[in-house]
Amino acid sequence: MAQSKKYLNYIGGRWIPAKSGKTFPNINPANKEEVIGLLPESGSGDVDLAVKAAEKAYGEWRLVPPPKRAEYILKASLLIQKRKEELARLMTREMGKVLRETRGDIQETIDMGFYVAGEGRRLFGQTTTSELKDKFAMSVRMPIGVCGLITPWNFPMAIPSWKIFPALVCGNTVVFKPAEDTPLSAHKMIEILEEAGLPKGVVNLVHGGPSTGEAIVRHPRIRLISFTGSCEVGKLVAEHCGKVLKRCSLEMGGKNAQIVMEDADLNLALEGAVWGAYGTTGQRCTATSRVFVQEGIFEKFKKMFVERSREIKIGDGLKEGIEMGPIINEVQRKRVHEYVEIGKKEGAKLEIGGKFAKGKDLDKGFFYEPTVFTEANNKMRIYREEIFGPVACLISFKRFEDAIRMVNDTTYGLSSSIYSKDVNFAMRAIRDIEAGITYVNGPTIGAEVHLPFGGVKNTGNGHREGGETAIDIFSEWKSVFIDYSGKLQKAQIDVD
Question: Which of 34, 53, 166, 328 could form a disulfide with 28 if both were Cys (CB 3.0 to 4.6 A apart)?
Fold first, then answer.
């Protein structure tokens, strides 16, 4: 650890250590003996310094024309594109997901950058009529101020891009805290924004753990919090922001379901279920944790799913042919295993997995076997609670209406999927499933940057990231009235 490279915070255009002088290690989850780097353990003093830098920069940045702001984002995106493979390999080392997935993470960052850069010329308002003569009315978007952005470890560059790029193009400045499990991917992103010429203080990077995030949430001069993470923490963020009337955008968990109808292409449905359950080792808010299969095909599909789960190749995501990497850390691996034990005690039937993955190349990492339960019901915690690991429940149903009711029987509502060749089932699922996202003949995972991303119920607080809706988070509406009548006109006041 003593030989590991030390990294710094980025505040006001300077790379500086935390005031405490303390650091924390960034560990490779595929090999816990490898410390990739040491990051500054920041406190409230570091956050305050970052806020002051962001406030200072805001006065000039908000006056930069949006197309010019967008040019910085486009330049940074092109630099990321040029370094895609380098960044993907770093991300696999610090996060664990396989290389083809980290390449996808980087590509999503690039896509978001290209999309948001285009929004620099599309921050549209509206022009409309006035009820009074010789009066013009319109609405325009305005920046908010200093934004506090807190991101998770499972998409270490993509999710920061969902927040940083829209915040910047709208004219805000940023204090950014990435997850302590994956700080270097975010660190590289800020280095690239610096290389793209972004003015000093516009983006500020503060590394650290929960106390650092809390300092950002509670800072009185941060005007907006955008948080992606657990529902438990999100509620605390919302509670504080509500007390002080601070704008707050939350994207939290999911307990996502895939429906497989009897008329479905079972091979396609199998591919979707496997990808949804085990992509990113099940560590996605959109992961497929419940698979509802119509009873006439249940036994056949169960056999197919279990056999395919048994074939999943586990290991270091940098190696060729590996399909699933490790859990992010030992704490999370133990949490996943605790849920498996709870499921067994509650009476669910463990079909496969349910234990730490062992072997010559696995013992140094936080690996867990693909795990499949059957005979789970809505009274069980494994049915209701987000596990965030490679654990799926296969559950049978009789009628389409039963499947919809079972899918909706959750406190979450992020993503959903139905496999069927019947357009009537597909359209009714789109209408009746309580979720922010519904896929037809596709898995529950896989976002596209130009569409809204988010969910209902405990998944969030009504905002959506991605697409035009991201601009709504990071801008305020201002109504403008221009009276050229040359006299005082009073709206809604009767004139004799």
Answer: 34
Provide the β-strand partners of residue 227: 150, 250
Q: What pLDDT, on a 0 to 100 scale, did the predictor assign at position 496?
A: 58
User: How do residues 97-120 score in pLDDT, each as one tens digit?
Assistant: 999 999 999 999 999 999 999 999
Active site residue 108: no
| CA–CA dist 35, 96 (Å, integer) | 13
**Residue carrying structure tokens 């504080």:** 240
Indicate which residue of 231, 241, 285, 393 is catalytic: 285
pLDDT of residue 494: 77
CA 228 to chain centroid: 6
The sheet with strand 391-397 has its strands ordered as 349-352, 371-374, 391-397, 288-294, 256-260, 415-419, 437-440
476 is catalytic: no
Q: Is the pTM of this model over 0.85?
A: yes
Catalytic member of 101, 108, 180, 251:
251
Amino acid at 77: S
- Cα(157)–Cα(159) distance, rounded to whole angstroms? 6
Rounded to whole angstroms, how far apart are CA atoms 58 and 51?
10
Question: 226 burial class (0-12, 13-18, 19+ CB within 10 angstroms)?
Answer: buried
The domains of the chain, with CATH numbers, are 9-252+460-479 (3.40.605.10), 256-440 (3.40.309.10)
Q: What is the mean pLDDT of residues 42-55?
A: 98
